[in-house]
Amino acid sequence: MSLLKAEGLFKSFGKTHALDGADISIRAGEVVAVMGPSGSGKSTLLHCIAGILPPDKGTVHYSGQDLTAMNDSKRSELRRTEFGFVFQFGQLVPELTCLENVALPLRLSGMKRKDAERASRDWLARLEVDGVADQRPGETSGGQGQRVAVARALVTRPKVIFADEPTGALDSLNGERVMHLLTTAARETGAAVVLVTHEPRVAAYSDREVVVRDGRSRDVEFAR
Ligand SMILES: Nc1ncnc2c1ncn2[C@@H]1O[C@H](COP(=O)(O)OP(=O)(O)O)[C@@H](O)[C@H]1O
Ligand SMILES: [Mg+2]
Predict the structure, then answer these.
(1) Are strands 4-13 and 57-62 parallel, antiparallel or unpaired?
(2) Which residue, judged by its Cα, is nearest atom 4 of ligand 1?
(3) Domain residue spans in the chain?
(4) Do 37 and 197 meet the contact criterion of CB atoms below 8 Å apart?
(5) Which residues does residue 161 pair with via DSSP β-bridges, in sequence order?
(6) Residue 203: predicted pLDDT
(7) By CB distance 3.0 to 4.6 Å, which of 35, 86, 201, 218 could disulfide with 163?
(8) Each residue of 112-154: pLDDT tens digit?
(9) What is the dihedral of CA 221, 201, 147, 118, to 10 degrees?
């Protein structure tokens, strides 16, 4: 049974066919690496299945609901409550402390400041960055910033984490640390992870691989 299923996705930007009939299916709790060369359509695929970008053609079903048929406010509500996002960099609000950044999605969903900050401190500790709670993102290292971003993605206990090259700006040691902490925390909470990467070392943290080439995807026929 898949939690998230996309079929026959097409997406063009002018003359560029970024997606040319891509399919992907994600089961609850699994970690799937989306691999492929630069420009092959990985980010476009991720944005379409996460309800950020509407495909030109094709369907995306999440938990029985058709994302492509939803209106914008329903879709952003779904993103806010069910999904978490980690990008390469630049996703934290620079004016807020790391603690306030992690607490932000909880505050936006109406949680009291004290409760939101307590939950956020726990998540910073799980990601081993409680030491930077009161610093602003610009005052942390790249690896610390990404761990804060992972804490923020997980604090709402989403069902799916979408991560687009989350270690792309880190050295390999920090990248491995972020991947280890991200996949461990996701497995503990039962969140599925859709991980876009072109680094085989990062993909090694996944249960399964999907390869994208020229806007088409295919499952790699092996399980770890
Ligand atoms: N917003 C956009 N405007 C124009 N072209 C885009 C846009 N986003 C992606 N593309 C093009 O679509 C193709 C696939 O891009 P992308 O999905 O970002 O690939 P990947 O993430 O695998 O590097 C590329 O040729 C890229 O230049
Ligand atoms: Mg990309």
Answers:
(1) antiparallel
(2) 13
(3) 2-82+158-221
(4) no
(5) 84, 193
(6) 85
(7) 86
(8) 999 999 999 999 999 999 999 999 999 999 999 999 999 999 9
(9) 50
The tens digit of pLDDT for each residue in 188-212 reads 999 999 999 988 888 888 999 999 9
- pTM, rounded to two decimals: 0.94
**Amino acid in the structure at residue 70:** M
Would the CB of 217 count as within 6 Å of ligand 1?
no
Going 60 to 66 to 69 to 71, the CA torsion angle's sign is negative
The answer for 14, left when phi > 0, alpha when psi is -120 to 50, beta otherwise, is left
First to last CA, the chain: 19
CATH of 2-82+158-221, one of 1.10.340.30, 3.30.420.10, 3.40.50.300, 1.10.600.10: 3.40.50.300
Burial label for 205, CB within 10 Å (0-12, 13-18, 19+), is buried
